[in-house]
Amino acid sequence: MTTSQTTTSTSQATTAQGAPPAERLVLGAMMFGTAVDEATSFAVLDRFVDAGGRWIDTADCYAFWASESGYGGQSEELLGRWFAARPGVRDRILLATKFGAEPRDAANWPASRTGLSPAAIREQITGSLRRLGTDHVDLAWGHMEDRSVPIEETADACAALVSDGVASRIGLSNHPAWRVERARQHAVAQGVEPFSVLQHAYSYLQPRPGTLTGNHRFGWLSDELADLAAVEGLDVWAYTPLLSGAYDNPAKPIPEIFDHPGSTQRLAVLDEVAAEVGASRGQVVLAWLVARGIRPMLGGSKVHQLDGAVDGVALELPPQLLERLNGVDVTPPSA
């Protein structure tokens, strides 16, 4: 089941329930409008919709680090142009955007950023809707935690987006479990919409304890977060599931934070399973995530990367192969 063997049938493939496999995938639009030019972005977006994909994820800060101005908004603006150029497509997709991480002072990020106060949230979502050319989003995220604001105030402000019809659901990204649950319990007590979706980095390989996997202290999906999601019925989205292509691209080494004996063992089993099912490492990782009830996010910048990812989420791993993948000890030595 290699990409070259299956891309022609991607848009026709369906799951056992009749839904296209692409519905299991989130298309991340982070670099659209900056590192990924408009023509390529439109081609990837068109292919995603044609394949039956629904969820597209962006943020008001994307991609400030790659822009000439040092500020974000380019991704949302590009999506707005795509919606305008494709009448009716907005009704075919589910749109998510995030707020809280846009620089206030581009020279002093992350110390200076918009944050998650009620006023900032309302200001940011208003700007996002304007750039996107829509009157609502299907999911609004708090992008990164803001401890200068009581989490209860953030929860109230996000719940108001739902009650006002600006967002259908709300979620938190890169937050520790205790703050997620404090916010949820507050919302439940107030009788308003609680956070129901989590977005964190996650993949088959696991980082060494105590290592930072990105710009966020709580960016990696911990066992505690996963347990909270399972018990409370929260949806989980995983960003960077393919480690930016490192599973399959020899030019991109596995990041150093994953360099430990547990990863060596996991990669060996991953190679065995990939060979057995005729897929790439990355496709098996995506199938493994889906089997765990996690929705993977693809930040690909090329149509063939999207095709390969759709093939991956369509892959149904037999129980014995899932047991083999899950049976590898993932406890790495302390950093």
- Strand content range: 5-15%
CATH architecture: Alpha-Beta Barrel
Number of domains: 1
Structural class: alpha/beta
| Helical coverage, percent range | 25-40%
Rounded to the nearest angstrom, the radius of gyration is: 19 Å
Total strands: 8
CATH class division:
Alpha Beta
Biggest beta-sheet profile:
8 strands, parallel, barrel
Strand order of the largest sheet: 1-2-3-4-5-6-7-8
Q: Give the SSE order as H and E letters.
A: HEHEHEHEHEHEHEHHEHH
CATH superfamily annotation = NADP-dependent oxidoreductase domain
> What is the terminal separation in angstroms?
38 Å
Annotated CATH topology: TIM Barrel
The backbone outline, from C-alpha atoms, is globular
Number of helices: 11
Poorly predicted runs of 5 or more residues: 1-16
- Mean of residue pLDDT values: 93
Summarize the entry for a quick read.
The protein has 335 residues and is α/β, with parallel strands linked by helices.
Write a structural description.
The chain is α/β, with parallel strands linked by helices and 335 residues long. The protein has a single domain, classed as Alpha-Beta Barrel (TIM Barrel). Helices cover 39% and strands 10% of the residues. The protein has eleven helices and eight strands. It has helices at residues 3-6, 38-50, 74-85, 118-132, 151-163, 177-190, 223-232, 261-277, 281-291, 303-314, 319-326, and strands at 26-28, 55-57, 94-99, 139-142, 170-173, 197-201, 235-239, 294-298. Strands 1-2-3-4-5-6-7-8 form an eight-stranded parallel β-barrel, surrounded by five helices. Strand 6, helix 7 (223-232) and strand 7 (235-239) form a beta-alpha-beta unit. The chain is globular and about 50 Å long.
